[in-house]
From TrEMBL:
It comes from Acididesulfobacillus acetoxydans. It holds the Pfam family Gin. It comes from the Bacteria. This is Anti-sigma-G factor Gin. InterPro entries: Sigma-G_inhibitor_Gin (IPR019700).
Length: 69
């Protein structure tokens, strides 16, 4: 595994403007604040919402104990 100085968002593929702390991490998968905010303001069922929800579910599935939101 190579060390990464800056995380890359799983959703938009961008490096967050404010670096490591500009977003959240679920089981090693990083999502930037911008996508988080887009998700919160996205309409439920919209393509962005579904895409991000799928990415989050995939990340959460890595954890055996489950959980969710
Ligand atoms: Zn993003």
């Amino acid at each position: 595994m190579k060390a990464e100085v800056y995380p890359v968002c799983r959703q938009c593929g961008e490096v967050p403007r404010c670096g490591l702390f500009d977003g959240f991490r679920i089981h090693g998968r990083f999502f930037c604040t911008e996508c988080q905010e887009r998700l919160l303001s996205a309409e439920i069922g919209s393509p962005f919402y579904l895409e991000m929800a799928a990415g989050l579910k995939e990340a959460l599935r890595q954890k055996r104990s489950g959980g969710g939101f």
